[in-house]
Amino acid sequence: MEMFTAIGLNHFLTISALLFGFGMFAVMTRKNAIVILMGVELILNAANINFLAFSKYNGGMEGVMISLFVIVLAAAEAAVALAIVINIFKTFKTVDVSSVDTMKE
Question: Average pLDDT of 58-77?
Fold first, then answer.
């Protein structure tokens, strides 16, 4: 009797769903802009796991290519978003997104 089973598609999808859930929880419940950005990164990583898992089990390279594109997109998003957060901090002296109501200053 074998104690361990092979890692299948359902394992990858479960991990991806957990990462997506944690990311959505961070985006929906937190007020700190940095934590919200980390939640967005978790959501993008969950999508990458799905792309790679389906690519592995379907035998194609499309998922790998889309995953590489998502990684590049996430890097660009992080750079632009952090620049915006730094600008918000310079203006309002906080990274709390609920206290930032206008960008007039």
Answer: 92
The structural domains of the chain, with segments of one domain joined by +, span 9-92
Residue 96 has φ and ψ, to the nearest 5°, of -75, 115
Helices (H), 7-105: 9-29, 33-58, 62-92
Contacts of 95 (CB under 8 A, 6+ apart): 32, 33, 34, 85, 88, 89
Whose tokens are 């985006």? That residue is 27
Top-level CATH class of 9-92? mainly alpha
Q: Quote the pLDDT of residue 1.
A: 52
Structure tokens at 32: 């700190």
First to last CA, the chain: 69
Angle at 30 between CA 45 and CA 75, to 5 degrees: 35
Residue given tokens 């952090």 in the structure block:
82
- Global pTM reads 0.85
